[in-house]
What does this fold into?
Amino acid sequence: MENIRIIPMTKEHIPKIAELEKICFSQPWTENNLEEELDNHIAHFFTAVNDKDEIVGYMGSCVVCESCYISDIAVFPDYRRKGIGRALLETTFRMAHNKGAESVSLEVRPSNTAAIALYSSMGFEEVGLRKNFYRDPVEDALILTCDKINI
Ligand SMILES: CC(C)(COP(=O)(O)OP(=O)(O)OC[C@H]1O[C@@H](n2cnc3c(N)ncnc32)[C@H](O)[C@@H]1OP(=O)(O)O)[C@@H](O)C(=O)NCCC(=O)NCCS
It folds into this structure.
């Protein structure tokens, strides 16, 4: 992996992350949504930056008691398959473990083979399905969890 640093998300990162959201998702988080998360004490957002301090990816999660829930992860297309998604997940696993979480869960579209491949490689397993969870287009969500987060 090139020289990538994973750092806590700040207000200055938000416009670029909102741009990334629009590229990746049909119902993207807005700048306002992201700003609200900065004030949410159970939310933990990380930004991936390269050696020129350019934002290349980000990830958000929240920790409640023994559970960590991943709300979003995205990497700019030119930076994919370089280990950045994995590095963001590993940082989140360490944070969640340090806060007492014992498992991490998330939802993913069954059609999102790249994300499912990443999650499987990190030890996530399918535990359920939410019918018609997504919009634009409508699709079920697979529920995945990982309980091997002490890495
Ligand atoms: C999913 C996503 C975050 C992965 O980020 P990434 O930085 O490309 O992932 P990594 O480079 O860390 O990949 C780690 C491993 O995951 C698997 N993987 C990732 N992308 C893959 C793909 N397109 N096809 C097959 N396997 C893939 C591979 O095992 C890979 O290891 P390898 O490159 O050594 O083979 C990225 O594709 C993305 O931003 N997608 C759009 C947003 C999105 O769908 N987010 C998930 C919402 S649930």
Observations:
- The pocket of coenzyme A is lined by residues 24, 73-75, 80-86, 108, 112, 114-115, 117-118, 121 (CB under 6 Å).
- The chain is about 30% helix and 35% strand.
